[in-house]
Design brief:
Shape: elongated
Number of domains: 2
Strand content: 35-45%
Order of helices and strands: HEEHHEHEEEEE
Radius of gyration: 19 Å
Largest sheet: 5 strands, antiparallel
Number of helices: 4
Number of strands: 8
Structural class: alpha+beta
Helix content: 25-40%
Amino acid sequence: MQAAQVAQQLRDRLTPAIERAGYDLEDVVVTPAGKRRLVRLLVDKDGGVTLDECAEVSRAVSAVLDEADDVLGQQPYTLEVSSPGVSRPLTLPRHWRRNVDRLVKITRSDGSTLTGRITAAHEHSADLDVDGARQSVRYDDVTTCVVQVELNRPTTPDDPEA
């Protein structure tokens, strides 16, 4: 069975357990690692995911994986659970919502680029502050959107670190 097929079958089996625990399964990646396989799960939730929460997800899915012999076979595997990180492209409305107040760089389907701060995220579009002007962007018009790392991120009046 191809790695992509294994990953999709694992996604189908693991999603209910992960959602019951209060998280979203963002990605499943299965890669060979010598005589073993590496099963990497990327999980997220509103407010982000801590290391302890990754361990909680790992415990929640272990029983499901132990019963997935028809998918994983008898080959041993290593489970890795982590959060997607800032390098993950924003592809779903929940990704945009979780990154409100973050600076993003967008490439549109017409090839043009736009850099702005997400001020609001809706079902089909997001509002950005682009050099002080509000601009709405429909998700359908976005080819890629990546959060920009800011070392000196501006603070807001309600920011606890301000």
